[in-house]
Amino acid sequence: MSRRRARPQPAPTTTPTDCPCGLPARYADCCGRLHRGQAAPTAELLMRSRYSAFAVRDRAYLLCTWHPDTRPPRLELEPGLRWRRLEVLAATDGGPFHTEGTVAFRAHYTDRGGDGVLEEHSRFLRHDGAWVYLDALTIG
């Protein structure tokens, strides 16, 4: 049984055909269904859906999947930043029977004509029964 999360509904500014998260699926059938309210069954799928939300500029989804203890009051997205590709490097725990998990990833982007990479080891927790992003772990 999937749990739906109530959230404000402004539609993403763009709707891609292929899912930005890198899985071989259409956006509507992959992260799009999570953006429309279906709960992510694992921490990794939540992380992928959050990456896709950055790619389609879905602020509401990003905020509602952020743990309330670390969620910013509002989220500004850089207008010139375009997310290009996601690489999941590792995932620990974060399954249906876990209460926490981590996902290490590399997110490739273009900003003002230059290419860049964000590498992060993110921590996720279950909150009110659903996976949420907590914070980034310090590497090193």
Strand order of the biggest β-sheet: 1-2-3-4
Number of domains: 1
User: CATH architecture, please?
Assistant: Roll
Could you list the spans in which at least 5 consecutive residues all have pLDDT below 50?
1-13
Instruction: Give a count of the beta strands, DSSP E runs of length 2 or more.
Output: 4
Secondary structure layout plus pairing:
Layout: H1 31-35, H2 43-56, H3 59-64, E1 81-93, E2 100-111, E3 114-127, E4 130-136
Antiparallel strand pairs: 1-2, 2-3, 3-4
Provide structural commentary:
The chain has 140 residues and is an alpha+beta fold. The protein has a single domain, classed as Nuclear Transport Factor 2, Chain: A. It has three helices and four strands. The protein has helices spanning 31-35, 43-56, 59-64, and strands at residues 81-93, 100-111, 114-127, 130-136. Strands 1-2-3-4 form a four-stranded antiparallel sheet, with helices on one face. Strand 1 (81-93) and strand 2 (100-111) form a beta hairpin. The model is unreliable at 1-13 (pLDDT under 50).
